């Protein structure tokens, strides 16, 4: 992995903290400054060797790789204000959902180089999934820099068509919540069968982690593994029949379509 330049995070929330933690472990780790108005969030990044500030423009004087890690609704206020300190050597990597590179470029000086990224929360434990694409002025080298930024904390998928970023957001950016909601529902259903919460969490948790590892080791042959567990007329078949009555695949297709549609609306 190539050495990274000094990095300025604009925003110091959970995702920024996870990225700083991942970068702390890389050889020749870069200098990192995090600009965050809430001083209560400073300790989490200071613990991983970053310095902090509450002044975004001061952060730009230190970091040439600028990571935009604020809430999307704050972008129209924060990004135009960065223009006063923007220089040709700066590269912006934005992790804002639903915010296009074109919009970000419009708030910055002409020729500003922008890479759009969509990470997910497992980045916090080094198991993230990140989609990235480049804006009109960014180069392949800029894309490679962005990939190096995320590589310590996850797997990176590069796409050439930015319109696919809303679909990536729908599948992997929002995806952890779908798994968490499924786990929540299974625990509640197990408790309805008479198990205590601790017993339900044990049963669901170990079944979930074991099944997922089994699926990965199979080469993601989900259909075959499901068929192995499902004996005709058996208990598994009875459960799956209930799911199919509710159009299980259709539910998830519509859910992902809704997420993608909302991403486009935000943009």
Structural topology:
Elements (H helix, E strand, L loop, with lengths): L6 E4 L3 H10 L8 E4 L6 H5 L4 E3 L2 H5 L4 E4 L6 H8 L8 E4 L6 H7 L5 E6 L9 E7 L5 H11 L3 E5 L6 H9 L1 H18 L4 H21 L4 H8 L5 H11 L2 H19 L1
Parallel strand pairs: 1-2, 1-4, 2-3, 4-5, 5-6, 7-8
Antiparallel strand pairs: 6-7
- What's the N-to-C terminus distance? 32 Å
Report the major sheet: 8 strands, mixed
Instruction: Kindly identify the CATH topology of the largest domain.
Output: Rossmann fold
Helix content: 40-55%
Q: What top-tier CATH class of the largest domain fits best?
A: Alpha Beta
Strand fraction: 5-15%
Count of helical regions: 12
Give the neighbour order of strands across the main sheet.
Answer: 3-2-1-4-5-6-7-8
The string of secondary-structure elements, in order, is: EHEHEHEHEHEEHEHHHHHH
Instruction: Please give the CATH architecture of the largest domain.
Output: 3-Layer(aba) Sandwich
Radius of gyration, in Å, reads 21 Å
Number of domains: 2
**Estimated structural class:** alpha/beta
Count every beta strand, where a strand is a DSSP E run of 2 or more residues.
8
Summed over residues and divided by their number, the pLDDT gives a mean of: 95
CATH superfamily of the largest domain: NAD(P)-binding Rossmann-like Domain
């Amino acid at each position: 992995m190539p050495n990274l330049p000094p990095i300025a995070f604009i925003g110091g929330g959970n995702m920024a903290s996870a990225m700083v933690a991942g970068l702390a472990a890389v050889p020749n780790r870069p200098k990192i400054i995090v600009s965050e108005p809430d001083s209560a969030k400073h300790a989490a990044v200071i613990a991983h060797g970053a310095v902090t500030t509450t002044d975004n423009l001061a952060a730009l004087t230190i970091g040439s790789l600028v990571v935009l890690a604020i809430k999307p609704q704050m972008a129209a206020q924060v990004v135009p204000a960065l223009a006063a300190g923007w220089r040709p050597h700066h590269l912006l990597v934005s992790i804002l959902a639903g915010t296009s590179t074109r919009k970000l470029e419009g708030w910055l000086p002409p020729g500003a180089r922008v890479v759009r990224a969509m990470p997910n929360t497992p980045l916090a434990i080094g198991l993230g999934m990140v989609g990235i694409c480049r804006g009109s002025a960014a180069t392949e080298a800029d894309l490679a820099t962005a990939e190096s930024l995320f590589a310590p904390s996850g797997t990176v998928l590069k796409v050439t068509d930015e319109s696919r970023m809303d679909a990536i957001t729908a599948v992997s950016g929002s995806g952890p919540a779908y798994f968490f909601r499924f786990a929540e529902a299974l625990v509640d259903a197990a408790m309805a069968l008479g198990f205590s919460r601790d017993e339900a969490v044990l049963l669901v948790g170990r079944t979930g982690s074991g099944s997922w590892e089994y699926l990965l080791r199979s080469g993601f042959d989900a259909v075959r593994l499901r068929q192995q567990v499902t004996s005709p007329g058996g208990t598994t078949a009875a459960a799956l029949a209930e799911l199919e009555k509710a159009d299980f695949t259709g539910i998830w297709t519509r859910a992902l379509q809704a997420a993608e549609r909302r991403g486009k609306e935000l943009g």
